[in-house]
Amino acid sequence: MSDLSHWVVRWLCHDLATPIASVMTASELLDDVKPDAEINELIMSGAQRLTGRLRLVRLALGAGESAMAGAPLGRLVMAGLDGTSVDWQFTGDAIDGMAPLVAGCAMLVADLNRTRALVVTMDGVEVPQGCNWPDSVAAVFAGEPASDNRSAVASMLLATAARAGKTLSCDGKGLHWASH
C-alpha cells in the first residue's frame, strides 16, 4: 500500500465511523416484538447519510472520468455533505473529469470547515466566512507530499485536477480550479 493510500484509508474509516455507529446503536435498541418508529427513523437516517457519503467518496476519489449533468451532481454532493449548507451555482454539465474534481473539492472544503456554508461555482468551492487550511493541506497545494489523512485527499485532488486538465489552488476563500 502506498503512503497516500494509507492516509486515505485512515481518513475514510474515520469519516464513515459516525454514520455506521448511529445505525448500529439504533439497531441494537430495536425490539423484535414491537418496532419503534423513532428508532427505525434513526436507522434510516444513518443509512441514508452513509449511502450519500459513500456515493460522494466513490465519485470524488474513485479516479473515474465520470461526466454528470450539473443538477444531479449537485444533489449527489449535497447528499454526501449531510448537514452542510451548499449554495449550488455550478451550471451546465461536468464533463472531461470535472465531476470527480467538483465532488472532491466540495468534500474536502466541507470537511475542513465543518458547519460553514459552501458555495460551489463554475471555478471553485468557497466558504463565504473564510476557509481554514491546516498546514499539512496547504503544504500539499504548495507542492509538498501528503503527511496525514486530509493532506492525502488534497494530493488525490491535485491528481484529479491534472486528469481534468486543470490546476488547483487554495486560498482564504476555498479551492479554485483553472485550465492549464
Residue fraction in strands? 5-15%
Query: Mean pLDDT, as a whole number?
Result: 85
Instruction: Characterize the largest beta sheet: strand count, sense, and whether it forms a barrel.
Output: 5 strands, mixed
The assigned structural class equals: alpha+beta
Morphology call: globular
Main-sheet strand order equals 2-4-5-7-6
Low-confidence stretches: none
What key attributes describe this structure?
14% strand; 6 helices; globular; alpha+beta
Describe the protein:
The chain is an alpha+beta fold and 180 residues long. Helix content is 56%, strand content 14%. The chain is built from six helices and seven strands, in the order H-H-E-H-E-E-H-E-E-H-H-E-E. It has helices spanning 3-29, 37-61, 70-80, 98-112, 135-141, 149-163; strands at 68-69, 86-88, 93-94, 118-121, 124-126, 166-170, 174-179. The strands form two sheets. It has a five-stranded mixed beta sheet with strand order 2-4-5-7-6, with helices on one face. A hairpin with a 3-residue loop joins strand 6 and strand 7. The longest helix has 27 residues, at 3-29.
Spell out the blueprint of helices and strands.
Blueprint: H1 3-29, H2 37-61, E1 68-69, H3 70-80, E2 86-88, E3 93-94, H4 98-112, E4 118-121, E5 124-126, H5 135-141, H6 149-163, E6 166-170, E7 174-179
Parallel strand pairs: 2-4
Antiparallel strand pairs: 1-3, 4-5, 5-7, 6-7
Précis, in short:
The protein is built from six helices and seven strands; from the N terminus they run H-H-E-H-E-E-H-E-E-H-H-E-E. It has 180 residues and is of the alpha+beta class.
